[in-house]
Write a structure and sequence with these properties.
Blueprint: H1 3-22, H2 29-35, H3 40-46, H4 50-73, H5 79-96, H6 113-139, H7 148-166, H8 178-199
Helix pairs in contact: 1-4, 2-3, 4-5, 4-6, 5-6, 5-8, 6-7, 7-8
């Protein structure tokens, strides 16, 4: 890792701590620069605005989450257990970094291009992870899944839809409260059982 990448990583780590503790609205670029003893000019050289830095933090956390999920899934052979593990890990990260899901983002009518890119990346990583679970279940003949990547996308969209069923304030975009996150996870597990049972190999039942 060269000096440029090291500096960028240090900025993302410092910003992660700030955003996770105070949220994006109550964090300033000046505070992050002070934490690292950097000039604001140098900070803006790496990240032109707070949203681009937030996007980098979001991407960093998402990659860490999916790396951890991928490692955990290696030791899980039952499809239902694997999906439950995925749901539990998503909830754990959501709780750990809850302040990153800042309500002030609700007022952003058009997401910045960089943030939109990261959200798309997270979706792709999630589909890839779910598809890997289905493919593993296919190999063990636990499930019969034709086009696992496509089926994984359908399943993910169904899980995302659970958010809107649970949100008490339907006008508040898509950021649940901590209690709603927990309720969503429970509903997603019930959905997973129904969904997976529909894909089971008749010989495995």
């Amino acid at each position: 890792m060269d000096n440029h990448d090291k500096k960028r990583t240090l900025i993302i780590e410092a910003a992660t701590k700030r955003f996770a503790h105070f949220g994006i609205a109550k964090t300033t670029m000046t505070e992050i620069a002070k934490d690292l003893s950097l000039s604001k000019a140098l900070l803006y050289y790496y990240f032109p605005d707070k949203i681009s830095l937030y996007a980098a933090v979001f991407e960093s956390i998402a990659k860490k989450m999916f790396d951890k999920i991928e490692q955990g899934l290696l030791d899980i052979n039952n499809c239902e257990d694997a999906v439950f593990y995925l749901i539990d890990m998503r909830l754990a990260f959501a709780m750990k970094y809850y302040n990153l899901f800042d309500q002030s983002l609700n007022s952003v009518t058009e997401l910045a291009e960089e943030l939109s890119r990261v959200i798309q990346l997270v979706s792709e990583l999630e589909i890839k992870t779910i598809a890997s679970i289905f493919k593993k279940a296919n190999k063990s003949k636990e499930l019969v899944v034709d086009k696992p990547d496509y089926i994984a996308e359908i399943f993910l969209n169904a899980m995302i839809g659970m958010r809107f069923c649970v949100l008490k304030d339907k006008k508040a975009m898509f950021i649940p409260t901590k209690e709603e996150f927990d309720e969503i996870s429970k509903m997603q597990k019930k959905l997973a059982v129904i969904f997976i049972n529909g894909l089971r190999n008749p010989l495995s039942k």
